[in-house]
Amino acid sequence: AIDFKTTMASVEFPSIFLNASGVNCMTVAEMDEMINAACTGGVVTKSATPQQREGNPQPRYYQLEHGSINSMGLPNAGFPYYLDYVTREHAKPTILSVAGLQMSDNIELLHKIQASEYTGLTELNLSCPNVIGKPQVAYDFEETDALLAEIFSFYTKPLGVKLPPYFDLVHFDQMAAILNKYPLTHINTVNSVGNGLWIDIDTEKVVIKPKQGFGGLGGAMILPTALANVRAFRQRLNPSIKIIGTGGVTSGKDVFMHLLCGADMVSVGTALLHEGVGIFQRLTDELATIMAEKGYTSIEDFRGKVQDF
Ligand SMILES: O=C1NC(=O)NC(C(=O)O)N1
């Protein structure tokens, strides 16, 4: 059998598969289910804000034919709940996702983690597209640079960032140049494709209540965008910065493409929500079949080796 374990920031994950933050990770029960499921590498928490949040009014999630649209608004049990969970012993590693609603939140949360017993990985969500009235930090390069400079003036534990998709090659250059300045363990790319819109033509209404129907897109339809972001950052980032590929994964073929683009781990959101944690055994089996057909015995045989035409 093929060994799918991987190491990031000297943390050994028994599998390359994770949940996308936000899916199946809001409660202890869901996070335990992720850890106890077959073929998972561990669990990424829902992005934690300083206080508990109800999030946006419902309906705030809607399943589309080839994906999803959401404007959840960061509903979560609050930072203490998730810090308590990740600080406890678990059978597999955890990644603590945190999201500030303003710069001072981000700094405050990371000071608290730095001062805590937690020694695992943390992921700073720079791309929450759905907090009404707040721009995405990751689309403000100066803001991102200033934030990371402030954080790394005191933070010494493993830290990665969750990024939104970029759509301009110069933006990849600019963002990678900023990220390469800091001792990040990883990036997680992509978050949802911000501010899509869908309409129910029977009612002639948008399908989610918040933000006049504008919401982040996920699922199969964003796979090409996700692959481009994984490849673009792999080409530009220091090799020491690992990549969690997120976006559009529904099959072993999609996992294979993320890995060809250079992903070290792969996370699943929309498809996990619809299929449940059994999806990770299916993705593992499908990936193993593809590798066997191609004569690959290790992911290292093909990781990052996508070829130009
Ligand atoms: O970072 C996020 N990405 C999303 O697509 N939705 C959630 C949210 O709205 O809470 N946050």
Question: What does this 3D model show about the protein?
Answer:
It is a single chain. The chain has 309 residues and is an alpha/beta fold. 31% of the residues lie in helices and 20% in strands. It has 9 helices and 16 strands. It has helices spanning 28-36, 79-87, 103-114, 141-151, 169-179, 223-236, 252-260, 270-275, 279-294, and strands at residues 6-8, 11-13, 17-19, 43-44, 61-64, 67-70, 94-98, 121-125, 159-163, 186-189, 193-197, 199-200, 205-206, 214-218, 242-246, 265-268. The strands form 4 sheets. An 8-stranded parallel β-sheet has the order 3-16-15-10-9-8-7-4. A 4-stranded antiparallel β-sheet has the order 5-6-14-11, with no helix packed on it. α7 links the parallel β15 and β16. α5 (169-179) packs across α6. It is globular. The two termini are 32 Å apart. The mean pLDDT is 96. It binds oxonic acid.
Brief synopsis:
This protein is α/β, with parallel strands linked by helices. 31% of the residues lie in helices and 20% in strands.
Descriptive terms for the model:
309 residues, alpha/beta, 8-stranded parallel β-sheet, 4-stranded antiparallel β-sheet, 9 helices, globular, binds oxonic acid
User: Average pLDDT, to the nearest integer?
Assistant: 96
Residue stretches low in confidence (pLDDT < 50, at least 5 long) are: none
Ends distance:
32 Å
| Beta-strand residue fraction | 15-25%
Find the count of extended strands (DSSP E, 2+ residues).
16
Number of helices: 9
From the spread of the alpha carbons, the general shape counts as globular
